[in-house]
Amino acid sequence: MGFPLQSLIEKIRQGSFSDFPGGVYPGQFKELSNQTPIARIPLPDKLFIPVKQHIGVEGQLKVAVGDKVDKGQALTQSMNPFAVPVHASTSGEITAITEHVSAHPSGLPELTVELTPDGEERWVELTPMLDYRQQSKAKLLESICQAGISGLGGAGFPTHIKVSPKKDIEFLVINGVECEPYISADDRLMREHSWQIRQGIDILCHLLNPRYVLIAIEDNKPQAINAMQVACQENPDYIICSVPTKYPAGGEKQLIQMLTEREVPHNGLPVDVGVVMQNVATCYAIADAIFTGKPLLQRVVTLTGRALQHPGNVWALLGTPVAHLLEHAGIKAAERQKLIMGGPMMGFELVSTQVPVVKITNCILAPDKQEMPVAADEQPCIRCSACADACPAELLPQQLFWHAQAKELDKAKDYNLFDCIECGACAYVCPSKIPLVHYYRIAKAEIRTEEEEKQKADKARERFEARKQRLEQEKAEREARHQRASEARKAAMEKDGGDNRARVEATLARAKAKQDVEQPAAGTSDKVAAAIARAKARRQAAQENTARGDQGASPAADDKASKVAAAVARAKAKKQAAAQQPAEQNQDSGSPADDKASKVAAAVARAKAKKQAAKQQPAEQSQDSGPPAEDKAARVAAAVARAKAKKQAAQTQKEPEQTSSDGDTPLISADKEKKQKVAAAIARAKAKKAMKDKDSS
Hints:
By secondary structure, the protein is of the alpha/beta class. About 50% of the residues lie in helices and about 10% in strands.
């Protein structure tokens, strides 16, 4: 950790500082732009305000195309702690919200709000906080966040996050080194606005409560050093440190090492060694937000290079296109070969003059051909190790280059690629003119892309596993519910066992009764048998009467007795048929099988009657005293009667059957069946009468 704190402070007050490894000494060329005060320029025709201008996440838009906005009005908002809003740089109308070329080495388009100024400079209502010491720190941090302030030194980290650490702070370092060649924005700001910078330092001290404040300025800025000494002379804990001019002394880790002799660990932060660092421009923006209520709308931008007629520093509204700045500075188009945003060491070449000024834009460099000649073609590495000697992070640029070129990203990470601050010192000293930083930036971007894809895949896997677990849990719960319901039903059945058995028996009884109803009537065959027995009885009675007549009865008496017996038999048959018809109707007229059986029985009865009549004919012929002609006529009449009966029976069988309401049981109307039976009885009576007439004759 270096010297004890008191000894270290004495050493700093005496102007004795440590050194950091590596570094280079390029030409400064700051006199091109630091000789004139910061200028104001006219409003541009269009402002292109990117939605995201900091490290973190972008906010959600609060405006739409066609909206009228006031100067300082918030265009975005977000509840994410790593999101800070952007504001309307002037009053006017939102004419477009679309993709626009970005302030990035790739120039890839990003979401941008296009604002057309109306020239009125109409401000939104401002809410300053003059009594900030009486306010809570949370409210003060909220004001800084809502002002849209992020680091203006180059990284763009949200300021309200950086000044709310979880650890005690010993040193608050204010970075006014500005080591990059050509750039003089912080130099002029310290010269002209040292009091506002000091006010911003006071606010930071109120938030962080550090033991000491170290204000670092390179010794090539004597006027800025004097201005800050005057502004801070009332507070002895504010120490102005004039550090040697060496590139990149303004790097965060390098400056901390110079001032405190403490090294930020690998993958660590300055807060890990008790240090917080802020840029002088950020301090000015904090004071402007708290004491005037103005959000971050503008910043100082250095316009320099020998291709400009009027180099200097200007207050540039955020969203101002570079073309408008070059028009103010008087660009010599014939002399210009390229445009660089930033300094010659860490800046990048612009792909368009429509690139807008953003919060981290501190310089637009327009060199002529003699000032910055076209770079020579890249040559093979000669392994001179000059890059390793110049690296302020003590890396091995040569190995990093090989692995980055071969896309061996894992090996590049093993060589601590992300410790590279992209200062460009290695490329500056490379005799082969290899753009080493270019390869490092591409490798970092590819690694970040892979990590993002891996994070997305991990999140997708986590969602899948969570869904699978949820489905399994729901299945288990469902099965448990079913099991509980089954056990409850079983318990209920055991509890009400007697009632359940009774209900089961009643159900079985109903089913049996229904089956009995649906089955054919069982009494049909008994009825047929009874009818056959009655027919046999009638036939036996007729035979007995005939026998009695043969034994001496008079023909008239016998004939009368036989007629009476036949009439009685017919009456009984009719009465029996009438009694059977309602029962048959109540039983749905029986099934087709029963009807067929009854017809068969009737046919059998008729056949027996015919057979009996045939047996009687020889005896009758032997006793017949009449002539043969009459006997023949009687037989013919009997045959005719039998044929009519057969014909009538055949017609009865051929008639279409009607069905019952269930569609299965044949049904013949009672009237028709009655008529058929009566006709059959009449035919039989006529046949018997003819037989008896023949006998009597």
